[in-house]
Amino acid sequence: MDKSTQLPLGSGRAQWIDSAKGLGILLIVIGHVYSTITPSILYVYIYAFHVPLFFFISGVTLRPGAGPFASVVAKKVRTLIVPYLWYSMLGYMFYAAGYFLAQHRGIHIQQFDYGLWPPLAGIFYGTIGDGRLINGPLWFVMALFWTFLLGYSINTYIRQKIWQWVAVAVFSGIGLWLAGRVALPFSGIPALSALVFFQAGYSIRFDDWSRSLGSRGHWLLLSVLLLISAFSPVNGFIQFGEGLVGNPWWFMLFAFSGLLSVMVILRRFDGHTGWLAAIGRYSLSIMLIHMLLIKAVKVVLAMVLQTSMDAIDNDIGLGLVVLGLTVVMLIPAVHVMERYLPFTLGKSSALPRSQLARS
User: Fold this and answer.
1) In sequence order, which residues have a C-beta less than 8 Å from that of residue 274 and are 6 or more positions away?
2) Is 340 among the domain residues?
3) Least C-beta-crowded within 10 Å: which of 31, 41, 204, 233?
4) What is the pTM (predicted TM-score) of this model?
5) Residue 70 sits in which domain range?
């Protein structure tokens, strides 16, 4: 079978792909509720792999040679850059509304200390940090655009697998070496660094080693992966979008152990993860909007309770309130985005009501 038409892990789209996206986006939403200045051990573990997991899954679905390069770029501009622009601008509008409301109420909220200009200019810089991108998770959308184009080009125009991996090693090596040293525009550092995860995801299309392990092999492999992941705190707290990866070798070890453990679990319990797959099918919409809802809930709570955002970030009980309200708000928000605002997601038309209901 030609590689450009071979489907991952057998015929049809495997449910575990959407399930992995569903679990990944849940971890990302939870990871944005509490403070990352003083992260818990659980947060250190989650952040070690949850973003690399998304790049890995994106590689799984890659189809080299799917069309002329120009049409591939145009499609990715429509499905990634267009949503990035819409929801980064929406994020700025949220920020500006909160900024003026806080000034009107005479309340000082540290997050508004950047003023109005840097967050607006930051949209066109495309890299998180120093108030440049208010809707923070959108750095991932920008980075994925470049990672995809690099991965697509390497696997389409370089025929030999060994040279594909050499190219990946060079690009990812540059990204990991520069990580923490400089901040490139358009999320260039994480885009380069993530190429190794993207390529690893693509590579399993041709070697479904998971099926050959058997039940005993699954549990043994999972035990080893979880044992390795238990040591992830030795590399510190990872903030991939900001280029904070600690030691690059430790980073890759713990990222791969975490994302592979997720893959093994989801493949093992594939028949019981339909609810995760349903969430995963809307992972992009959730990625685009969840941080704005979290911030809105926190700002309102800070005003109502007359407390600081930092206090909310570090309070377990208030964090659960924020998480609960965010989840409740996400359901209608995603429905509106998918049903009535498909153009903001780079889609030509809305999903049918029947498909929304089934999902």
Assistant:
1) 15, 19
2) yes
3) 41
4) 0.90
5) 15-358
